[in-house]
Design goal:
The complex is a heterodimer of chains A (about 90) and B (about 150).
Chain A: E1 2-5, E2 19-22, H1 27-37, H2 42-45, E3 56-60, E4 63-65, H3 67-70, E5 80-85, E6 87-89
Parallel strand pairs in A: 1-5
Antiparallel strand pairs in A: 1-2, 3-4, 3-5
Chain B: E1 6-10, H1 11-24, E2 30-37, E3 41-49, E4 61-63, H2 65-77, E5 81-90, H3 98-103, E6 109-116, E7 119-128, E8 134-142
Parallel strand pairs in B: 1-3, 1-8, 5-6
Antiparallel strand pairs in B: 2-3, 2-5, 6-7, 7-8
The chains are: A alpha+beta (about 90), B alpha/beta (about 150).
Chain lengths: ~90, ~150
């Protein structure tokens, strides 16, 4: 059972919960488990092809992983999965 | 007419952001904003973070995902909420660009400092609505020191 840390901007879609315990055994299945529990979160995490959106980064512990290539990374009860939105901007369109 | 939402910041936070924006001129600066959101949003702490945009930083900023992850952790460890980010617009108005809007995330207050010829000219705050459009928030500055 891994723990997913929900970033502050997405907590409005998780009833203000800052974390979620999942019984899934891989990273991607854990994220799918999360959006099953909180369906409003899905469009913010996954694109139309059900891949993790490009501006969302996924960390397992202290390491960033690529969900497309490493989504089957296994997780256990001590695993912390962090969802990290990319923050950027600038003055010119 | 719809009433503008409010965000309260302390004078220390305001001064901190201005100093950072002016020191960084003519590049864009960026940082995190922490506080609490009970009945109203109150920002009591600002924290600098490196602008990791490759190349020209005068018109763009980017926060490293690992710095963001640590900011969320900092908030939890210090019983604070991560409530937004600030960044500067050197020699440009304190209004979000289309680029800002496309990259923005819900819930956060986006505070923008316009820095004209090295001096802060305006500070505004913005938050996305449900249609992913920015709406301006009224900034209320607390003059007294918060404990």
């Amino acid at each position: 059972m891994a723990k997913i840390i929900i970033p502050t901007p997405l907590r409005k879609f998780t009833d203000r919960s800052n974390s979620f315990e999942t019984s899934s055994n891989t990273v991607v299945k854990s994220l799918e488990n999360l959006v099953e529990e909180y369906p409003d979160l899905k469009k913010h995490l996954f694109d139309d092809e059900d891949n993790v959106r490009s501006f969302i980064k996924i960390y397992v512990g202290d390491d960033e992983i690529d969900p497309l290539n490493n989504g089957e990374t296994s997780v256990d009860e001590d695993t912390i999965i962090s969802i990290v939105p990319a923050i950027a901007g600038g003055s010119i369109n | 007419m719809k009433r503008m939402s409010e965000v309260t910041i302390t004078q220390e936070v305001s001064d901190f952001m201005e100093k950072h924006a002016e020191e960084t001129y003519n590049n864009e600066c960026c940082g995190f904003l922490y506080g609490h959101e009970n009945d109203a949003r109150k920002i009591t702490l600002a924290q600098r973070v490196e602008n990791t945009k490759d190349g020209d930083k005068r018109r763009r900023f980017k926060i490293d995902p690992d710095d963001y992850r640590k900011a969320e952790l900092f908030a939890v460890q210090n019983n604070l909420d991560l409530l937004g980010v600030y960044h500067s617009h050197p020699d440009h108005p304190a209004r979000p660009s289309e680029h800002d809007r496309k990259q923005a995330v819900p819930f956060f207050s986006y505070i923008i400092l316009s820095v004209m010829s090295g001096k802060t000219a305006a500070i505004t705050s913005w938050q996305l609505n449900d249609d992913h459009q920015f709406e301006e928030e009224e900034i209320k500055t607390l003059q007294t020191k918060s404990l």
